[in-house]
Specification:
Elements: H1 2-30, H2 67-104, E1 111-118, E2 124-133, E3 136-142, H3 147-150, E4 153-160, E5 164-176, E6 189-200, E7 204-214, E8 226-236, H4 239-244
Parallel strand pairs: 1-7
Antiparallel strand pairs: 1-4, 2-3, 2-5, 5-6, 7-8
Length: 261
């Protein structure tokens, strides 16, 4: 019985001795000196970089194009190249115009000759030719008999022109011409439109040639073959050329009412 009384007493004594230790630990935690407000914390650990996954087995997108798309892109590129060439040519011509005007005093005048050359094969019969210079019709003829097609060189304009920039517009109509197995060509009609800008230079004679020819080869579609090529030739202006020069073309928009068709 005495042992039974001693066991609860011992448990109570142990609990009483453990309580001050816990209080001491709490007091130590409470008495800990806080860090100064201006103290800097240690360097932060940087976040790991985002992972990038590259699939080496992935196939690129399909960049192939059809033959029709390629032909359209090619024609667009050719047109842009031609426009760039024309801009470069006009810039060079303006420089020459400025140089000649300064040196010569700008009193000699300028002259231009425009001609048309037909180098199309017999499969294309020229039935109409229209040339407009600075808004004024200089040549307009339509003929279905073949007489127009037989003229390989046609003079369009010869005379004086004001120094500066000018524009030529041309419309050509061709009738398909064929016999035997190529008789189907008679059902085709082709219209070709083209324009060209040139710069008349003070004291110079400028010859502009418009040549109709067939581009491409046997694999080129018929409607893509007719085209116009422009060439220029500049020569010194002689006294005889000045005397034989005709009136200059009217300024753009000065054509008589009803002159255009």
């Amino acid at each position: 019985m005495g042992l039974a009384l001693l066991l609860p007493l011992a448990a109570t004594t142990l609990a009483a001795n453990a309580q001050p230790a816990k209080d001491k630990g709490s007091a130590a935690a409470a008495s800990a000196t806080p860090a100064p407000a201006g103290a800097s914390a240690g360097p932060a650990t940087p976040a790991p970089p985002a992972s990038v996954t590259v699939d080496m087995n992935a196939k690129p997108g399909d960049t192939s194009m059809s033959g029709a798309t390629y032909a359209v892109k090619l024609r667009d590129l050719e047109q842009r190249v031609d426009e760039l060439k024309d801009q470069i040519r006009r810039s060079h011509t303006r420089l020459a115009l400025l140089s000649d005007t300064i040196i010569g005093g700008g009193t000699a005048g300028s002259r231009a000759e425009v001609e048309f050359k037909n180098e199309m094969s017999s499969a294309f019969l020229l039935t109409r030719a229209l040339f407009v210079i600075d808004g004024q019709i200089q040549y307009n003829r339509q003929d279905d008999s073949g007489a127009l097609a037989d003229q390989k060189v046609i003079p369009i304009y010869t005379g004086s022109v004001p120094p500066g920039d000018h524009t030529i517009q041309v419309v050509l109509t061709f009738q398909g011409n064929g016999y035997g197995v190529f008789s189907y060509l008679k059902g085709y009609k082709f219209e070709v439109k083209s324009s060209h800008s040139f710069t008349a230079i003070e004291g110079k004679n400028l010859t502009v040639s418009a040549t109709a020819y067939e581009k491409g080869g046997v694999t080129t579609a018929l409607e893509q073959r007719p085209t116009v090529d422009w060439r220029e030739k500049i020569e010194p202006l002689s006294a005889s050329s000045i005397a034989s020069s005709g009136p200059a073309p009217a300024a753009p928009g000065a054509a008589a009412a009803g002159g255009k068709k």
